[in-house]
Amino acid sequence: MSEQNEETAVPEADTQAQAQPARGAAAAPSRRTVLGWGGAGLALGAAAAGTAAAALGGGSDHVPAALTGAAVPFHGPNQAGIATPVQDRLHFAAFDVKTKDRAELVQLLKDWTRAAERMTAGLPVGEGAVGGLPEAPPDDTGEALGLKPSRLTLTIGFGPSLFAKDRFGLEGRRPEALVDLELFPGDNLDPARSGGDLCVQACADDPQVAVHAIRQLARIGFGKAAMRWSQLGFGKTSSTTPEEQTPRNMMGFKDGTRNIAGTDTAALDEHVWVAGKDVAGPSAWMAGGSYLVARRIRMNIETWDRTPLQEQEDIFGRDKAEGAPVGKSKERDEPFLKAMKPEAHVRLAHPDSNNGATILRRGYSFTDGTDGLGRLDAGLFFLAYQRDVRKAFIPIQRQLAKSDVLNEYIQHVGSAVFAVPPGVRDKDDWWGRALFA
Ligand code: HEM
Questions:
Q1: Where is the Dyp-type peroxidase C-terminal domain (predicted)?
Q2: How far apart are CA 65 and CA 21, in angstroms?
């Protein structure tokens, strides 16, 4: 693969092309046209990501619809996919590491990083899907050819089990905040949908782009890492862009109103990014990272649908139409918690009820068919990022699990926690380099 040739210099036109709305428009750098440039190396990936950065702006808060085909920069101090404006679709995968060889795991992380750099820039993996040796399987499976980058982000995390004794020599490097989550009251966790040594969160505005990305990583990992479980999400249930319309969850309520905005750097520093002072010594590799809690929360949709509107609104402490807190008229009005029922979801989850505990929510709705009894297997795939799980998700969830009236309509059926390392700085860096240094 050539590192750089005259074809890999990203043409000026393509800087704007990142912002072109129409798929296949003359200047749009679709995966197909990119492939046509032939032999495009990582230099192109990085350059394309750079131009997209210009189009979107790092941590951009407002994404006009016309930009949804664009690329989100892969490189940076923090991983993309956390403060990034939430994309429409999700494919989340947890992996078990099968190899016992530390060097092989390191090589896998390097290979994944190089593939992620390319895919997030709208490029196929390796030498691509077509045009290679007819005798060999192509490097890329091809289903994203012709599709735009679609704001694909790939975010990796390391589960507690990766740090276990006698595995990869990482036991001394497990950050204290990467705790095993306790079993909360009401949890009905399926081990086959829980845990994992590694996770990759793929978010994109095109579901095929997200699924393609996870599939390529799984292929690259063959023999070294096996997918343990995965989850598709079809509609964001939280946004990090407050000026946009707040999405609704499967219960029909606006979700994500009081979330951390992707542009609120002060709140991100306070509640989401791990600071250097949090992780002195052997855990210093986590500075600039974050902790992710993933919960598959099934909703008893049929019961919910038979619940009167007033009761539904009392359960959340917000009205259904506007999303305004009880006693207020506008969605963004400050909630007055005492006006809500004592066990309303918002009242219990609010930072004022949890010593200031605050999380960045980034979940998605899911519907995985029916359960054999004619009920929808649907709900919320809850994703929350935070600086310290012990001071954020755990206290909030303890409170919710104990008293939330919403519990009558939901059940937590899957659970995982991951240490999400800082961003990949440049093309020589790779996911987890500081951890394995
Ligand atoms: C299926 C399960 C859940 C549903 C349907 C749900 C729905 C909602 C809705 C509609 C809101 C109000 C709008 C907003 O500010 O976003 C809200 C707020 C919130 N939820 Fe949930 N939620 C669920 C689970 C959870 C869990 C497991 C947690 C954390 C452990 C959580 C934490 C929060 C927080 C922190 C707020 C904002 C409270 C505030 O600051 O006013 N939620 N949720």
A1: 246-424
A2: 8
Average pLDDT over residues 266-288: 97
Using CA atoms, how far residue 207 sits from 21, 91, 121, 244, 366, in Å, is 17, 8, 16, 21, 13
The predicted-structure confidence for 225-270, as pLDDT tens digits, reads as follows 999 999 999 989 888 899 889 999 999 999 999 999 999 999 999 9
DSSP run (H or E) holding 216: helix 207-220
Token pair belonging to 333: 């009005």
pLDDT band at residue 108 under the 50/70/90 scheme: very high
| Binding site membership of 400 for ligand 1 (Cβ less than 6 Å) | yes
**What's the rounded mean pLDDT across residues 154-182?**
98
169 C-beta neighbours (distance < 10 Å), count? 11
* Dihedral pair phi/psi, residue 347, rounded to 5°: -60, -45
259/350 Cα distance (integer angstroms):
10
- Tally Cβ neighbours within 10 Å of residue 120: 29
Ligand 1 pocket, 88 CB below 6 A?
Answer: no
Q: Find all residues with CB under 8 Å of 188, minimum gap 6, and list them.
A: 411, 412, 413
Ligand 1 atom closest to Cα of 380? 1
- Indicate whether residue 364 lines ligand 1 (CB < 6 A): no
pLDDT of residue 68: 61
pTM: 0.88
Query: Is the minimum distance from the CB of 389 to ligand 1 under 6 angstroms?
Result: no
Q: Is the pLDDT of residue 43 over 70?
A: no
CB of 382 closer than 6 angstroms to any ligand 1 atom: yes
Burial status of residue 27 (CB atoms within 10 A of its CB: 0-12, 13-18, 19 or more): middle
CA nearest to 197, candidates 216, 176, 178, 172: 178
Task: Return the closest-CA partner of residue 362 out of 201, 150, 187, 156.
Answer: 201
Mean pLDDT of 283-294: 98
Give CA 99 to chain center in angstroms: 25
CB distance 284 to 276 below 8 Å? yes
Cβ(366) – ligand 1 distance below 6 Å: no
Residue 346 has pLDDT above 70, yes or no: yes
Residue owning tokens 């309509």 = 409
Angle between helices 207-220 and 102-120 (to 10 degrees): 150
The ligand 1 atom nearest the CA atom of 238: 16
